[in-house]
Amino acid sequence: MATISHAYHRVSDEPFEIERAFDADYLLYASTGTFILDIGDRRWMLPPQRAALIARGTVIAVRSKGQATASSVLFGDSEFDAPLPVCRVFGLSDLARQMILHVMRWDAGRPSCDETANAFFKALASVARDLAADEDETWLPKPQSPGMAVAVARMLEDLDQDLDFGSLAEAARLSERTLARKFDAELGMNFRDFRHRARMVRAKEMLLAGREPITEIGLACGFESTSSFIKAFRTFAGTTPRQYRMGKAG
């Protein structure tokens, strides 16, 4: 039986963690709270300013650290003309956000002959596909061992500081040499490169939230001056922090 497009809405009052694969192309969106999405060896943060378009059959792990609302869409078999990439994470426009919230009225029990719903889901698929073509580089490599997970979590807690590598090794209960090897083996980059990428991803998250001044975001991400932050961000993202905020948060 062919899958019809339908919405998936769930409010979670407590932290949760699930792992599964859908038999449909999937638009994952947290209308409140933040999801942490793991696919393969990559991890994304999904605040309400971002969504993920995921190909059918892809195994995903999703968790939240607190209250969150899933307002997501499973697309029917004929909504996309070609197979989707495994995962694309992108910034949502106001139009896309409102369209997602609008389709929440049509769940899996809706009539397949509802032409209004069918047309709306088709339009949403087109909008999501176009937005996903401009993928936002916001993933981090995922730790593969407990010790590495501890070290990364410790570092991410204090991205505004230049933590001593020895303190991370101590927290992970590993020697500095072993931890250095694990950064290369598990994350595909050394400690300094990973920290820099994490700072850039954190900066994107803060810019999308749209509240704090750019100077304060730079300081929170470990930069001593606004000019050094802007230069590093432009190199990473191809645009200035201000331009990124204006272009992605709408």
UniProtKB/TrEMBL annotation:
Species whose genome carries this gene: Neorhizobium galegae bv. officinalis
Protein name: Putative transcription regulator protein, AraC family
Domain of life: Bacteria
Stretches of the chain forming a coiled coil according to its record: none
Key words, A-Z: DNA-binding, Transcription, Transcription regulation
HTH araC/xylS-type domain span: 149-247
GO molecular function annotation: DNA-binding transcription factor activity; sequence-specific DNA binding
InterPro entries: Homeodomain-like_sf (IPR009057), HTH_AraC (IPR018060), HTH_AraC-typ_CS (IPR018062), Tscrpt_reg_AraC-type_HTH (IPR020449)
